[in-house]
Amino acid sequence: MSSSRPSKAVIGAQIASLAVVAIIAVWRSPAANWNLPLFAILLGFSVFGDLTAITTSSKVKISGSFLALVLAMVFLGGTPAAVIGVVTIMTGWLRWRDDWHYLLNNLFTYATFPLLTGLAFHAAVGNSIVDSEPAFYACVFAVFLVALAMNFTMIASYSCYLDRSSFLLKVRTALIPLLPSELAAALMAVGIAYLYVQVGIAGVALFGIVLVTFQYLLGALLVSQQRAEELELRSKQLASFQVGMLSAMLRTLDLRDQMTARHSAAVARYSRAIAQRAGYSRREEELVHIAALLHDIGKFILPDRILKANVPLTDEDWMLIKRHPQQGARVVSSLDGYGPVAEIILAHHERIDGEGYPRGLSGDDIPELSRIISVADTYDVMTARDSYRTPMSSYDAIVELRRVAGKQLDSRFVEVFIELLEGKDVSFQHGEAADFEKELALESRIAETASPDGEASRFQVAGVSV
């Protein structure tokens, strides 16, 4: 999602504000600590951190310059820190080539928060707190957090203005996930400050190693998080595509043979109700519902003379019919994550006595959810108004279910289903009310997510630019 350009009034306000900041920086310059060796080292680290920043595909820049800026605020003062910030942005622009209005906003931001935070730190510490006291290091920690808050607020507010987005949303998506690493960086700043006080300029030299290491680790962390999010998104998109493809196949089967499609919908509703009454988990309810919807998908292989026939079938025809569980399982198993569904489909015509097909399984060797579908399938075939046989009444079908229980069907699931029917816990006893479209609405169970493209505005959070 591309952002709009700022208005002339906003540009004018930024230029005027930058000029005011420059005047304040010059005014306060004599009071700053212009330790040139330390200034040069921190400037070098800051520029190096920005030039070697890692950029992810979501336009997040991982840079180590923020730590150098915090140390400059503490040991040099507001004006030197602001100079380092401005030079870092200008040098970084040679690589990143951000749009000119982003460059202007970044210059304003990186002149303002280092100057104001540095001035506030020295005003608070003054001559009352020496660098050997714990209070001094507590102030270093605080200045890190204040600078972080100012940096984020200025950059995020500008981004919200451009793309008309929510500031709170940016807090949740851009700042909060990084807070643990920011707290670690704040503690790191305190440790480096202590080294400088104890060892001197040599301690800051160690900062270079810490800077590079931290930048690498933080970059690797964020890149891995992004890859995990991208993988999750791709998985959801793939699942959605697969479900859409299966739904399209079922709808095609519906166009070819409405009886089979209605039957699949009714069996799916019966099967879910049986699983729920039998105490299965919500996941297993969904699993048996999906498998029941797809249990006859293998009938695509059957010619119309079999699929729509109302005449006796030949032995060759029955051989084709007995292949449909295998063909259906083969189609479904080719989809990622649908192995359990395929196993249920493959066994839905097995019998308790071992006389079923295609593998002749018996008893407990038949998956339980397949046994549930067998009960629902048998009942709907007997009671359906749109079959080519004379439909039974619900009462006669119940009698027949009990007759074949323990031989063809699982006795336990037969009795569970009969309890549902007799208790009127299902409103589709004869199958004619099964709503195919409602049962087929699988796509709604898979939520797709999308993240808008970010712009190249620079937000540094302990070395992270967005």
Could you please describe the fold and organization of this structure?
With 466 residues, the protein is mainly alpha-helical. It has two domains: 8-234, Arp2/3 complex 21 kDa subunit ARPC3; 257-430, Hypothetical protein af1432 (Orthogonal Bundle). It is built from 19 helices and three strands. The chain has helices at residues 8-28, 36-51, 65-75, 78-96, 100-125, 134-163, 167-175, 179-199, 201-256, 258-277, 282-294, 304-307, 315-321, 324-333, 339-346, 368-383, 394-404, 411-422, 436-440, and strands at 54-55, 61-62, 464-465. A three-stranded antiparallel beta sheet has the order 1-2-3. It is elongated. The two termini are 15 Å apart. Residues 429-433 and 442-466 have low confidence and may be disordered.
- State the end-to-end distance: 15 Å
Describe the global form.
elongated
Low-pLDDT residue spans? 429-433, 442-466
Helix- and strand-based class? Answer: mainly alpha
Radius of gyration: 35 Å
Proportion of residues in β-strands: under 5%
What's the structural domain tally? 2
**Class of the largest domain, according to the CATH hierarchy?**
Mainly Alpha
CATH fold title of the largest domain: Arp2/3 complex 21 kDa subunit ARPC3
Whole-number mean pLDDT: 80
Helix content: 55-70%
Strand order of the largest sheet: 1-2-3
Provide a count of the helices: 19
Task: Give the second-level CATH assignment, the architecture of the largest domain.
Answer: Orthogonal Bundle
Number of strands: 3
Order of helices and strands: HHEEHHHHHHHHHHHHHHHHHE
Q: Biggest β-sheet: count, sense, barrel? A: 3 strands, antiparallel
